[in-house]
Amino acid sequence: MLLLTVFISIVCASFFYIQAFTNGLGRRRWAFAGLIFGPLVWPMFCMKKRMKVTQAFGLDYLIWRA
Fold first, then answer.
1. Rounded distance between C-alpha atoms, residue 9 and residue 13, angstroms
2. What is the pLDDT along the chain (66 residues), one digit of tens a residue?
3. 8 A C-beta contact, residue 9 and residue 35
4. Contact (Cβ atoms closer than 8 angstroms) between residue 16 and residue 33
5. Cβ(61)–Cβ(54) under 8 Å?
6. DSSP 8-class letter at 24
């Protein structure tokens, strides 16, 4: 059980590191958050990403997703 928890933490840390790198956020900060909290960080990460887009382009910017 402990080994599974450590594995999930390492996978989440690497996932958030890559996502933060591709989205221009703090890599070490999000990797550490993923290591400590695991997948519970995902909603906070999405909100931070959205706030960064809103700050860069304003509220009138529309994101089209296919």
1. 6
2. 999 999 999 999 999 999 999 998 999 999 999 999 989 999 999 999 988 888 888 777 666 766
3. yes
4. yes
5. yes
6. T
Tokens representing 48 are: 């931070």
Give the C-alpha separation, 30 to 65, whole Å.
24
Amino acid at 1: M
3-state class of 51 per DSSP? Answer: helix
CA–CA gap between residue 50 and residue 20 (Å, rounded): 12
CA 65 – CA 8 distance, rounded (Å)? 29
CA distance 55 to 38: 27
Give this prediction's pTM: 0.79
**pLDDT of res. 56:** 83
Report the distance separating Cα 13 and Cα 39, nearest Å. Answer: 9
